[in-house]
Amino acid sequence: MKVKLLALLIVSVFSAGAYAISDISIGPFFGMNMPLANKDAKSGTMIGLQAKYSPISFFAVGAHYQGRKYGDPSEEFFYGTDTKDGGSVTSLGLDAYLGKTSGTGVNFYLMGSLGTYKWKRENQGEISKTTYSFGPGLEIVLPMNLGVEGRAMFDIAPTGESGSWKSLLWFVGVNYHIGLGPM
Amino acid sequence: MKRIIYFGLVAVSGLVITGCLLTGQITIVEDVNIGATTNGNISVFHLNLNNNEDYADNFDKIKSIDGVSFVAKIWNLEDSASTAKIYISSNGSYSTTDLVEDNAIKILESPAVPGNDSILIGWNDSYRYMHNLDSLFHYVKDVGEFYVYAIASPVPFHDSVRAQIVITMTVGN
């Protein structure tokens, strides 16, 4: 009996019925990475890829890859103004969404994210932290299964001594939807 | 919608409670004017970071030291090439290269400086020449003042060093 139920579940997920009960989307994004209260890095670009799965109408889970580039900080020294490498951060993470994340039209949600934070800079050792992000997002999904998404996130990487590095992240992205989920 | 607002409030409250939102990162730059140093008359500079207003204001609020390095211009006044070294200690009475090497902590070793020439160690390059960062971080975070020695090898040497310490740290309540 359990085997039949499992088989039925698998078939339903991969059949046309999945169109009505779930939504899977995947797509690239491009945006900005803006350090807050941080003198060791300047604003830079961010690119990435994300995937989202909406099994029910008010909840979704997902995963992302982000490549962030920091701008070079500068300081005044006895020999003049000088800079150092701001470096780049890569992050792999898992996301959770509350709100409308599937179906055509305008979708609005709040999301939270947990990810890795690997900061590489020239002449300095690699720093590995865990990062947490949260913020609102908006996606307009067109009937041809394409969505245009914008999101802003507050990102925080605790340094382990009650301190943290904070950034404001925002991006726009394009998602391709396989199934449009519960309407 | 109530669930969404509740989710956001819980996330923000958790971060505020843990203090994460109330910290920021600052960078301070302080002069370390070591000046002329020879094997017969080793120069020592008393570095009191509390003379820096930003450091003094935040000393008891330091959460972490995120980076320390020395930018420096080093003049080699001998005819042959030499390598400059910067040491730190809580003791300012070492008068020979042996005493400095045996008792102080080496925190910088420069590339070779050609005879009768100078080099500049800029901010980005400075990190590659640093040594014993854990000890240096301890002096910066927990002590606040120490002695900075400049020596060189080979002996005899005659150098002049103008430097600045650059400290990036996370501070907050």
- Strand-pairing-aware structural class of chain B: alpha+beta
**Sheet bearing the most strands of chain B, described?**
4 strands, antiparallel
**Share of residues in strands of chain A:** over 45%
Taking all Cα atoms into account, the compactness measure Rg of chain B is: 20 Å
Give the secondary structure arrangement, pairings included:
The complex is a heterodimer of chains A (183) and B (173).
Chain A: H1 2-14, H2 18-21, E1 23-36, E2 44-56, E3 59-69, E4 74-77, E5 80-83, E6 88-99, E7 105-121, E8 124-141, E9 146-158, E10 164-178
Antiparallel strand pairs in A: 1-2, 1-10, 2-3, 3-6, 4-5, 6-7, 7-8, 8-9, 9-10
Chain B: H1 2-17, E1 23-38, E2 43-48, H2 53-58, E3 62-76, E4 82-89, H3 97-103, E5 105-113, E6 117-121, H4 123-126, H5 133-143, E7 145-153, E8 158-172
Antiparallel strand pairs in B: 1-8, 2-7, 3-6, 3-8, 4-5, 4-7
Commentary on this structure:
The complex is a heterodimer of chains A (183) and B (173). In chain A, the strands form two sheets. An eight-stranded antiparallel beta barrel of chain A has the order 1-2-3-6-7-8-9-10. In chain A, strands 4-5 form a two-stranded antiparallel sheet. Chain A has two helices and ten strands. Chain A is mainly beta. In chain A, 39% of the residues are buried. Helices cover 9% and strands 66% of the residues of chain A. Chain B has 173 residues and is an alpha+beta fold. Chain B contains five helices and eight strands; from the N terminus they run H-E-E-H-E-E-H-E-E-H-H-E-E. Chain B has helices at residues 2-17, 53-58, 97-103, 123-126, 133-143; strands at residues 23-38, 43-48, 62-76, 82-89, 105-113, 117-121, 145-153, 158-172. A four-stranded antiparallel sheet of chain B has the order 1-8-3-6. Chain B has a four-stranded antiparallel sheet with strand order 2-7-4-5. The model of chain B has no long low-confidence stretch (mean pLDDT 90). Classes of the chains: A mainly beta (183), B alpha+beta (173). Chains A and B meet through strand 4, strand 7, strand 8 and strand 10 of A and helix 1, strand 1, strand 3, helix 4 and strand 8 of B.
